[in-house]
Structure formats: structure tokens, C-alpha cells
Design goal:
Elements lengths: L1 H4 L3 H16 L6 H5 L14 H10 L4 H6 L58 E3 L16 E3 L5 E2 L12 E3 L5 E2 L12 E3 L5 E2 L12 E3 L5 E2 L12 E3 L5 E2 L12 E3 L5 E2 L12 E3 L5 E2 L11 E3 L5 E2 L11 E3 L5 E2 L12 E3 L5 E2 L12 E3 L5 E2 L12 E3 L5 E2 L12 E3 L5 E2 L13 E3 L5 E2 L12 E3 L4 E2 L12 E3 L5 E2 L12 E3 L5 E2 L12 E3 L5 E2 L12 E3 L5 E2 L12 E3 L8 E2 L21 E5 L3 H6 L10 E4 L1 H8 L1
Parallel strand pairs: 1-2, 2-4, 3-5, 4-6, 5-7, 7-9, 8-10, 9-11, 10-12, 11-13, 14-16, 15-17, 16-18, 17-19, 18-20, 19-21, 21-23, 22-24, 23-25, 24-26, 25-27, 26-28, 29-31, 30-32, 31-33, 32-34, 33-35, 34-36, 35-37, 36-38, 37-39, 38-40, 39-41, 40-42, 42-43
């Protein structure tokens, strides 16, 4: 009887393990084969006779109370096993045959009792497993299993067929739930039939590298990494799927067709590196998450209900067009390096994130009528982009259009902030910029915009190198500007006239090497910094009536400078060394036939004569009466 056979929990485990093996094995053979499968423990040579095992099977009925009373180390006790003792479970050939029709919820405590505790138990090389379980909840250790058929199983629990490396076919006719890692690492698995499956768990088919297709018409949920690295899988049909978790189809390199018309929720990196996926249409999906389609081979993407596209969603996809009529947010790097993207429609988007369209080299035009913010480097190196309309944009980030070499014009009627730096740097075709409300033109904002001819802004400051090397810039009108930064117009070789009615400070090298600049008026300017006008070879007159500080080399090498007006100063300005180096102020220039002149108020003329820093040009100082100054201003 059971009590006689089971003398301690180790032997109990062995009996149960043999019983389980007999249930699962179809090629066990004669009773002797079963007998040879077990040794109860290391310190005995006793082996159960087949008749004893048969008696144990016929009588085995564990309840929760019985299992706990026997001290079995199982977290969940066996349900009652209603085996028919009158039935002959042995065929005429002497082989064991039992369809286990009533076995429900068999649980083997894998986490409590390891294989090392069952040193006398060995698994036979089972190649086929056919059962009628209603709930599959055992840990199957059959590495040579090739076919698993469970026509009545409604739930396959976690890790049941994990690492069955020879398993090729799984038939789950009635299964509604496939648990976590159920078929993980089944490298030979090529066919899965589960027409009633409604849920696929975490890593359920991870690394099933031979799996060819999935057809689960009732499946509504796909867990994270469920089909990760199923590299040969070419199609997925889940017409009722509403939720796909993170990494679900990661690196499914062969995946080319996905049908999920009811999909509403898509999680991070769900289709990352599906390199054969060319087309997706998810009409019910409202959000495209982080890394969703990175490095897919998408040419067309349709998401009519999508409201947000998150970071890197389509990064490095060769898609040609994108249609997102409800989208309000395009997040960081969402379409970065989509080299073939040429047609984009975003009628409702309000924000474009950092690097969103960076390196989209085929993008030629884009309309963003509702957009109010463009992130840093959003369109950097979109080398085919010719025009963009941003009627409601109020803020543009650093480098937003850097090196867009085909961009010809841009209109920003409501923009108050043009980036931190390099906003339009290197836009060599840009000729027209309209931004009447911009408060600041930052560092290198228009540097190397070699087609720009007119700079007209109401900004309060011009940043460092803002218009550096704008070689075709001819006219600058900055009526509200208070400060010109370092090298702001450096090497603007065609710049001819500049009007700075409110500017108080001109930075170092601000107009250096502007070889065509002939005149400049800055009636409120109080300081001219180091080399501000150096090498302005065409400069003839400067009107700086209140300037109190002229730094080193401020006008050096201005070989045609003949008139400097300091007509409203109340005291002698500070003059740096070499401020007039090689100008007509300090030496006679035979090419123009004259010396230069510094015009000062008659009231302080004498102070100039005794000021040591002005001694090098003392002979060039010319006093002007109040009436002459008034006439000059008029």
C-alpha cells in the first residue's frame, strides 16, 4: 500500500517522479524499463517491482492534508487523481498506456526540490507527448521531445517546454493562456497551433529561431519579449490583439507582415530591428513608444489615431511617407536618420522634440501649422529641405536647422526665441528670414548662411558669431538691438551699411574683416571692444558720438578711415593701444591723399590735447562747435 511504499519524503518524491514519467512517456516499454528508471536513494539498492508501482498508481490519492501530514516538500499539494482501478492500463504487448483523462493541476515543486535531490531518477528520451490535460502545470524535462499535442489543455503554465531543443510542433487546440517562457529556447519549434489563445506571456517563445508564422485570431495580449529573436518568423496574424508589451517582437529579422487592426497599446521597442518589416498600419493605436520601430525596413506607416510619437520610434527606418493627422507630439529622435522620408503631414502637432528629423536627407518640405516649439537639432542636416512654415512657432531650439543647405526661406512671425546656438548655421541657400519678434539672435544662429542678403530683426542682442561668414549679407537693420556680440558679423565681406540706433556695446571682432563696410552709425554706443572693426578696409566714417571706451586695435588696418565722430562725449574716452594702427589717423595715406580726423566737442578739446593715450593722434583731433554738431546730426 502507499503507506508501506512511502517510507520517507525522498522515496515519496521518487515514486511521484516515476508516476509522472509514466504519464508523460509513450515509449517507456516493458515494466522492466520502468523499473530500471529509478533507484530510490543513494544508500539502498532496492528497486520497486512493476507490480508495486502499479498498485501505488491505482491507489494514489493525495489531498492537501495527506501531503502535508507526510511532510512532502511541495508548495502545492496534488489534486485527487481519479484513476480507475478496474481498468487494464497495460496492453497485450505489456506496454504501459494511460490517457490521464482526469489528471488536473499536477504540480512538481521545481523550486523546492532540484534534480540533484533525485539522483536515482533518469528521464527517458521521449519524442512525442500526447495528453488530455485540462491544465498543464508540470515541469517537463524532455530535451528530445519533437511533438507536443494537448488538444484539451486550456492553460500552459510558465516554463513548461522551455529548452526542449528538438520540439518542432506544438498543438494547443483548446489553450487560452500560454504562460511565461513556456516555449523559450525551443530552437527547432516551427509550428504552433493555438486558435483559441487569448494571451501570450513573457518570453513565451523567446529564441524560437525556427518559428515561421503565428496565427492567433483571438489573442488580445502579447507579453514582453514574447517572440523576441524569432528570426525566421515572417508573419503575425492577431486581429483581436489590443496590447503588445515591450520587446515583444524584438529582432524578428524575418518579420514582414503584421496584422493587428485592433491594437491600442504598443510598448517600448516592440518591433525593434524587424529588418524585413516594410509596412505597418495600426488604426487604433494612440501612442508609438520609445524605440518601437528602430531600424525596421518600413516604407509606409499609417497611424490615423496616434497622438504621440515618443523617442526614437522610427529612427533609421527607410520610410518614404508618414501620415499622422491626430499627432500632437513628435518626441526626441523620433524620425532621426530616416534618409528616404520625403512626405510628412502633421497638421495638429504642437511640439517637435530634440533631433526629431535629424539627418532626414530627403525631406523637402513640411507644414507644421499648429507647432509652437521646435527642439534642439530637430531638422539638422535635412539637406533637401527647401521651405518650412511655422506660423505659430514661438521657440526654436539650438541647431534646429543646422546645415539644411537647401533651405531658402523661413517665416517665423510669432517666434520670440531663436535657439541657444547654431539655429541656422550653415544654411548656405537661406536668403530670406522673417522673425520680427525674436528677442535674441544667439551664437552662430546664421553663421555661414552665404546667401543671406538682409538681416532685419527687432531683437535686443546679437550673439557671438551670429552672422559669421555670411558673405552675401549686404544690409543690417537692428532698430532695438542693445548689444553686438563677439565676431557677430566677422568676415561678412559684402556688408555695406549697418544701422544700430540703440546699440550700447559693440563686441570684439564684431565687424572685423567686413571689407565692404563703408559707414556705420551707432549714436548710443558707449564701448567698442578689441578689434571690433579691424581690417574694414572700405570703412570711411564712424558715428559714435557718446562712445566712452575704444579698446585695443579697434580700428586697426582700416586704411580708409578718415572720419571718427565723438561729438557728444562729456569726457575724454579711454583709448586702447594700437586702436588706429595703420589708419589715416596716425599716418599719411598717399592713396587717399589725406590724414584722418577725430571730431570732438569744442568744450573738451583741450582735454584731448593733454590726454596721454590720445597723443599718437593729437594732430588729428578737430574741435566742433555746438552749431556744427547740431547741423551734423540734422
Amino acid at each position: 500500500m502507499v503507506g508501506d511504499l512511502v517510507k520517507n519524503h525522498v522515496r515519496a518524491i521518487a515514486v511521484l517522479e516515476v508516476f509522472r514519467s509514466m504519464l508523460l512517456a509513450t515509449d517507456v516499454g516493458h515494466y522492466a524499463n520502468i523499473a530500471r528508471m529509478i533507484r530510490v536513494c543513494n544508500d539502498t539498492s532496492e528497486t520497486y517491482r512493476p507490480s508495486q508501482i502499479a498498485d501505488a498508481i491505482r491507489s494514489l490519492r493525495f489531498s492537501v492534508t495527506d501531503a502535508l501530514a507526510m511532510g512532502l516538500p511541495f508548495p502545492v499539494a496534488f489534486d485527487a487523481l481519479a484513476l480507475d482501478p478496474s481498468r487494464d492500463y497495460y496492453s497485450n504487448s505489456g506496454k504501459f498506456s494511460m490517457p490521464v483523462a482526469n489528471a488536473a493541476a499536477i504540480y512538481y515543486g521545481r523550486d523546492v526540490v532540484s534534480k540533484n535531490d533525485l539522483k536515482g531518477v533518469k528521464y527517458e528520451s521521449t519524442r512525442a507527448f500526447v495528453g488530455t490535460f485540462s491544465w498543464m502545470f508540470t515541469t517537463v524535462g524532455m530535451p528530445l521531445l519533437e511533438v507536443a499535442a494537448l488538444p484539451n489543455c486550456v492553460h500552459v503554465a510558465d516554463r513548461q517546454f522551455r529548452s526542449c531543443s528538438h520540439l518542432e510542433i506544438a498543438r494547443l487546440d483548446s489553450c487560452s493562456v500560454i504562460g511565461s517562457q513556456t516555449f523559450a529556447d525551443c530552437y527547432a519549434l516551427s509550428s504552433v497551433y493555438a486558435p483559441l489563445c487569448g494571451s501570450v506571456g513573457y518570453e513565451a517563445f523567446v529564441n524560437c529561431s525556427s518559428l515561421l508564422a503565428i496565427d492567433m485570431p483571438l489573442c488580445s495580449y502579447v507579453g514582453s519579449s514574447a517572440f523576441c529573436s524569432c528570426i525566421r518568423m515572417s508573419s503575425v496574424n492577431m486581429p483581436n490583439c489590443s496590447r503588445v508589451e515591450a520587446y515583444a517582437f524584438l529582432r524578428c529579422f524575418g518579420l514582414s507582415e503584421v496584422s493587428m487592426p485592433m491594437l491600442e497599446t504598443l510598448s517600448n521597442a516592440a518591433f525593434l530591428e524587424c529588418k524585413n518589416l516594410t509596412k505597418v498600419s495600426f488604426p487604433a493605436c494612440t501612442l508609438i513608444p520609445y524605440n518601437a520601430f528602430v531600424r525596421c525596413n518600413l516604407s509606409i506607416a499609417s497611424f490615423p489615431a496616434c497622438s504621440q510619437i515618443l523617442d526614437f520610434a522610427f529612427c533609421s527606418c527607410p520610410m518614404v511617407s508618414a501620415f499622422f493627422p491626430q499627432c500632437t507630439l513628435v518626441s526626441n529622435h523620433a524620425f532621426q536618420s530616416c534618409f528616404n522620408l520625403s512626405d510628412v503631414s502633421f497638421t495638429m502637432v504642437s511640439e517637435i522634440g530634440f533631433g526629431a528629423f535629424r539627418y532626414c536627407s530627403s525631406l523637402s518640405s513640411i507644414s507644421l501649422p499648429a507647432c509652437d516649439a521646435i527642439g534642439n537639432w530637430a531638422f539638422e542636416r535635412c539637406i533637401s529641405l527647401k521651405s518650412i512654415s511655422l506660423p505659430n512657432c514661438t521657440s526654436i531650439g539650438a541647431g534646429a536647422f543646422e546645415r539644411c543647405i537647401s533651405l531658402e526661406s523661413i517665416s517665423l512671425p510669432n517666434c520670440t526665441s531663436i535657439g541657444a546656438n547654431n539655429t541656422f548655421d550653415g544654411c548656405s541657400s537661406l536668403s530670406v528670414v522673417y522673425a520680427p519678434n525674436a528677442q535674441e539672435i544667439p551664437y552662430c544662429a546664421f553663421a555661414e548662411c552665404q546667401s543671406l542678403e538682409l538681416a532685419e530683426f527687432n531683437c535686443r542682442s546679437i550673439g557671438e558669431s551670429a552672422f559669421y561668414y555670411c558673405t552675401n549679407l549686404r544690409d543690417v537693420y537692428l532698430p532695438e538691438c542693445l548689444e553686438i556680440g563677439y565676431g557677430a558679423f566677422y568676415v561678412c565681406t559684402n556688408l555695406r551699411s549697418v544701422s544700430l540706433p540703440k546699440c550700447t556695446s559693440i563686441g570684439a571682432y564684431a565687424f572685423s574683416s567686413c571689407i565692404s563696410l563703408s559707414a556705420l552709425s551707432a549714436p548710443m554706443c558707449q564701448s567698442v571692444l578689441h578689434s571690433a572693426f579691424m581690417l574694414c578696409s572700405a570703412l570711411q566714417a564712424l558715428y559714435l558720438p557718446v562712445c566712452g571706451y575704444i579698446s585695443n586695435s579697434a580700428f586697426a588696418l582700416c586704411k580708409n578711415l578718415t572720419s571718427l565722430y565723438l561729438t557728444s562725449v562729456t569726457s575724454v574716452p579711454v583709448l586702447g593701444s594700437d586702436a588706429f594702427y595703420k589708419t589715416p589717423m596716425v599716418q599719411y595715406d598717399s592713396s587717399i591723399g589725406t590724414y584722418g580726423s577725430v571730431f570732438v566737442p569744442e568744450s573738451i578739446y583741450s582735454d584731448f590735447l593733454v590726454a596721454s593715450e590720445w597723443s599718437s593722434v593729437v594732430d588729428r583731433i578737430v574741435p566742433m562747435s555746438d552749431s556744427e554738431i547740431a547741423e551734423l546730426v540734422t
